[in-house]
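Notebook B, p. 112. Complex prediction, attempt 2.
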Amino acid sequence: MADLPSDNRDSFSSKFGVIAAAAGSAVGLGNIWKFPYIAGIYGGAAFLFVYLGFILAIGIPVMLSELIIGRSSQSNAFGAFKVLAPGTPWRYIGILGVSAAFLILSFYGVVAGWSLQYILLSVQDGFSNKSPEEIATLFSTLTESPVRPVVLQLIFMVLTGAIVIVGIKKGIEKYTKILMPLLVIILLFLCVKSVSLEGAKAGLEFLFKPDFSKLTGDGVLSALGHAFFTLSLGMGTLITYGSYVKRDNNLLSTVINVTVADTLIAIMAGVAIFPAVFAFNIAPAQGPGLIFITLPNVFHQMPGGFIFSILFFILLTVAALTSSISILEVVVAYFKEEFKLGRRFATVLATILISILGVLCSLSMGVLSPFTFMGLNIFDLMDWISANLLLPIGGMFIAIFIGWVYGRKKVHKEMSFGGNLSGALLSVFMFLVKFIAPIAIAIVLLNKVGLLKFS
Ligand code: TRP
């Protein structure tokens, strides 16, 4: 049947495998490291609620759109638009995505490298007998050093490349299925401990009691950017993964499973961290070091904390790995299919190029810190440009493409595989991708550049 994915293309072997891989991509440093630290900067609960609104109104429809584009085109992020809209400029959305993948993975690998370092520190029992101040110094000393974090980041990139080389079934799918549930269990233990600390209440209020007067335009933009980042949207990760999904999978149910899992894990990370932040008198607006400074204090106070901290940082690294492979895969699928390279060569090339940028990100925390642009060092700049600019712009065009170019009829067909879709649901979806998502994204971006002021 012409409708079925061609046999020579790699694909996920089961429905659970698809959900596990997509959830593995979504759940990562974004949930556990980034969400708490930007929520901390932008005032907690108000940020959380705006972010949840964006997940519902924009994240879910854009995720569905990406999977539709990927599965129906059976192609990489760039090639997909060539298949679905031949001879049009739509393919450049794919280029935007591949560029975003470069920027994101460059700083992502650095943070994953920190996580590796924290596995080592945990094994050496390096947090015991240390005051909260000493633990904070430990973090800055590590990240500012010119050698160690660079080496650890490179190790992480080699791990990522090694899994991607093996390909979809044997690599990506296998590693994702087992370890995610374990991470959730550890997080639950941390939540319980953190909430039972003295002074925890202030942290829960910070996270759940919104004061919308604190919300700034930058906060709203970051919430939008983070909704994309955390769900792995806007740059073709889910176009690429969608191209490996078989037709017996129902896309809507996959999307709902992934979104719920991702959101719950971010909220759990918040519950594990903010009560402890307040209990130990740590500044919530600490920045990228927040979890690395907060959690060791919690481990201190837990019976069995030594074991917990080792396990936690191992699982954080694994969660980072199941995400980083999905970012690298975008570049590799593009190199492979558009330049006719072998998977092995494409992966080695992509890994080397991204690692070079990653080394600069790592050094920008220390020796290269004088180099800034708009007040941001290289690390923050890569993060800012990708999450707050490239992903929302990519997502906006993806929604427009599905709403206005691809059209309702084909959407209906693609979404009906593996389950029925009601007409009402389809209408809601079409309304979201045609109007709500593009307009909301445009307003937030225009507000940022100052063309439109609402705060
Ligand atoms: N979503 C992942 C996280 O939260 C990171 C990630 C993986 C990503 N693939 C992506 C972010 C694609 C943006 C785009 O850690």
